[in-house]
Amino acid sequence: MDGKEKMDSELSWGFGDGGDADNESYSYLFGSDFKDSSILNEFGWNIPVDSCGVSGCKRGFADFDPIDPDLSRSGADAEGEATVAVVEENSTSASVLASVSSSSSEMSTETGSSTAPAATNPAPDRAKKVGKKQGEKRIREARFAFVTKSEIDHLEDGYRWRKYGQKAVKNSPFPRSYYRCTNSNCRVKKRVERSWEDSSVVITTYEGQHTHHSSSSFGFPHHHHHQFHNNPMQLLQYPPQPRQPQGLLGDVIAPHPPSDMPN
DNA sequence: CGTATTTGACCGGCGC
DNA sequence: GCGCCGGTCAAATACG
User: What is the pTM of this model?
Assistant: First the structure.
């Protein structure tokens, strides 16, 4: 048991910047604009964490593709446009995107009853406990999120992911899926959930940087690009007040490719 | 048979 | 201290 390897950081998504640990407030920017930025389409997203410090600020952006040539077109094929909203951690206000954990006085529906599976069947064999790192400090990797209008939950991004968990989201009828990069030493994680407000939108959150190239070429999905025909942005406006992208991204993100990866 | 997913249990933090 | 909550593990299962 003790020979078990590091359980690595379990402190993954929550951002404990000091005060409110659970206060997941995000500000996102809608990105058809900054999508133009060269920094983005470069590699999908390379976030130089060093620029801000580990516990500071960092965000990236991934240019995404709807990837729904044959799958998502069932029903409304007009959709499928990929759009983005970058989520910045450690933002000041505007609780929105993933504010599932906070709000609770609105559409409170099936939160604990129907969605939560009643685990009344204890496993007798489960005596082994998950080992933990000895006094290991958990450092949160940079993470960023964006929303995509798609009927597919898990968008293809050129990497291979292994699903390692799924949980019901509070105040949301849709579950949240946890993925991890299948590569050996790559500890990039990914969280996918559907918006509780707009079910046609999925929220994808990445954490960490890949230590390798993606399977196909690199960069993000570019299978078919039938990107924006109409106004993909229209539907993505559930945030109360989106911030301006300028300054945020350009300031932090460095234009250098991920060739300096250790490991 | 190997690999990926499913799924309940478990864990650690926080709030009460 | 207990319960909630979000996240993760791992055994079982599904899938090729």
Answer: 0.55
d(C-alpha A84, C-alpha A263), whole Å: 30
Rounded-to-integer distance, Cα A68 and Cα A80, Å:
6
Nucleotides of C strand lying within 7 Å of any protein CB atom: 5-12
End-to-end, the C-alpha distance of chain A in Å comes to 26
Per-residue pLDDT at A138:
57
**Are A34 and A113 a contacting pair, CB within 8 Å?**
no
Tokens 């499928």 -> residue: A80
- What pLDDT, on a 0 to 100 scale, did the predictor assign at position A84? 54
User: Which of A96, A105, A110 minimizes the C-alpha distance to A201?
Assistant: A96
pLDDT of A210: 83
- List the one residue out of A179, A156, A145 whose CA is nearest residue A60: A145
CB proximity A128–strand B (7 Å threshold): no
Given a cut of 70, the residues of chain A with pLDDT beneath it are: 1-140, 215-263
pLDDT at A213: 75
Q: What is the 3-state secondary structure (H, E, C) of A211-248?
A: CCCCCCCCCCCCCCCCCCCCCCCHHHCCCCCCCCCCCH
Strands (E), chain A: 27-30, 85-88, 143-149, 161-168, 175-181, 189-194, 201-207
Q: Is the CB of A8 under 7 A from strand C?
A: yes
Nearest residue by alpha-carbon distance to C1' of C5: A101
Q: DSSP of A102-124, one letter per residue?
A: T--SS---SSSSSSS-------T
Are residues A64 and A221 in contact, defined by beta-carbon separation less than 8 angstroms?
A: yes
A16 touches strand B (CB under 7 A): yes
Segment A56-77, tens digit of pLDDT: 222 333 333 222 222 233 333 3
